[in-house]
Amino acid sequence: MQAELLGLGFVIAMAAASIRIATSLMYATLGEMITERSGILNLGIEGVMILGAMTAFITTYATHSLELGVLATILAGLAEGVVMSFVYGRIGSNQHVWGVAFTIANFGLAYYIYRLYFGGTAGIMSTIIPYSPVRIPLLADIPVLGPILFEQYAYTYVAIILFVIFAFVFKYTIWGLIITVVGDNPMAADTAGINVYRTRYIAVTLGAIFMALGGSFLSIAQFNAFLFEIVAGRGWIAIALVTIGNWKPMRCLLAAILFGFIDALQLRLQALGISQFTLAGTAITIPFQLFLALPYILTIVFLLMSSRTADYPTALLTPYRREE
Amino acid sequence: MKFPFRLEKAPPPSMLRRALLPVRALVATFLAGAIPVMAAGANPLQAYYTMGVGALGDMIAIAEVFVRAAPLMLTGLAISIAFRAKFWNIGAEGQLYAGAILGTLIAINFPELPPWIHIPFMIAAGMLGGALCALPGILKIKLKIGDVVTTLMLNFIMVIFTSYLVQNVLKDPFTRWPQSPPITDTATYPILIPFTRFHLGIVIALFAALVVGYGLIEYTALGYEIKAVGSNEVAARLAGINPTALTIKTAIISGSFAGLAGVGEVAGIRHHLIATLSPVPIGYGLTGVVIAVMSGLSPLWVVVVAFLFSIIINGSQTMSRLTGVPIFLSEIFQGLALGFSLLFLFLDMYRIRRVR
Question: I need a surface site. Which of A77, A144, B43, B322 has the fewest CB within 10 A?
Fold first, then answer.
């Protein structure tokens, strides 16, 4: 009986942790998905997340207000998005190389500003009081599901709601249709009277705001500091998740949660020092690095297996210029 | 609201203008870079001066510039050749590690081989590793985003795989550190200038870029095909160039050069495999993209620009210590240089007209 309860407790804790850890990935994946659906591959995502994490942290540190931290993150994402949408939308060619430029520049900028603000005291780690999880009354009392779903950060609830909204937008509204058409066939969209540039500006900018928010979750909720390597490749994982999620909102959300789970499991196994499993009587050694590499491996496998059926936006990476 | 400007195809820029791309991008980068320097309360000229002095102040520092330039040259070269053929290899970092892994496997074994066999054997293995790691990028043939996404993902897979190897199967049993056993003396790149780290790999990298890379692009049939695809894909196809075969060949060549960079880091500097051969998170693979694009994808310019960034990266430590400007200026410069290069390439191709 007791062992059984312990088992259930473990499952609940793991499920709750998976969703919590996935939050940053949810925002990033949503941002990249919206951007890619409009036909633009934004490889600058990792940099935007780092910038978002830094902006949120410094603003909160300076003002003692987490809300102002979030607001500043949104503004930083907006500013970044405006620059990116101009570059991706108007220049368009070499957008993946531009993305590399944005990532490198934003990484440098974020740590440069952080160093300037806190001086050369690299050894002393400045901290803030971060967001804490919000327990939703009544709903949190539901057995099993309550502690998994309703004792999360406000960030997490908003992320899931945003996914539901965008699933609806892409499936049932004219706006979703417009973004999809622009991403699949900009020329046809233009002929039909859709403003291709404006659509892409909006998608890229909105995407950048979500990416920045994904970064900010790390510095002002999941952790309480702006560490070196805080984003740790989550932007690149988001690109992987969009592919694995087949550019569909709810599948992307599930992919993000799945990798939150893998990450939580990997952390737990590392903490317990477990790397051996017994399967059908034989001991199998699974190194934790395999879990870390899984999103990247699965992305390539997915692309290899479904290169014909993948629902990727046909005009992805193709610049659109009306004049030509 | 109507956008008040309009783009028109411009006649191709003059040879001189195109050749001077690195200079133009460099000037713009140093001008724009003055803003963060001033924000840090420093004098830009003084900051740049200390950067130069730090990187080139004495013989040992100059040798270190060569040490840093070697992998940058090779990843820059790898990416230049790939981008020329419109094979979007973002994965030089992963290919560097793949080369380092296979090179190390040869280098920690076979101590009885004489160096003149052991070193070429190790180099061949490393280049094979890099090539194998670039090959999945040929998914591009089937899927337009195949090369970008696959090579990008392989970066992380290879770094994680290296970290696994040096903590488990390839771990040196005689140390606590996550590293492979040391490579044998017969596989170590000899030091060419005493009391510095100037090793054979630097000469190999210079040879690879100036002779092999340049010769390949300018004087071989394959180079001609790569250039043809680069300037006009449709015309190249009509001229009978097989895009599938060319993509495969390009992937192999590009990956080999990046793999050679990995061999150089192990055989020339570290003398064992580690998971941090390249800076984190902006490694030699990403800086290679900056170098390749800023060089206008020309192997000769790649060498010059690789030295430039080697000076910026090495010199920013001294600059930071003496002027208080954060060391991350070097990454800001890399991002700016890549952005300006792309911007100038674009502006050279198009004319901006005001719409009335």
Answer: A144
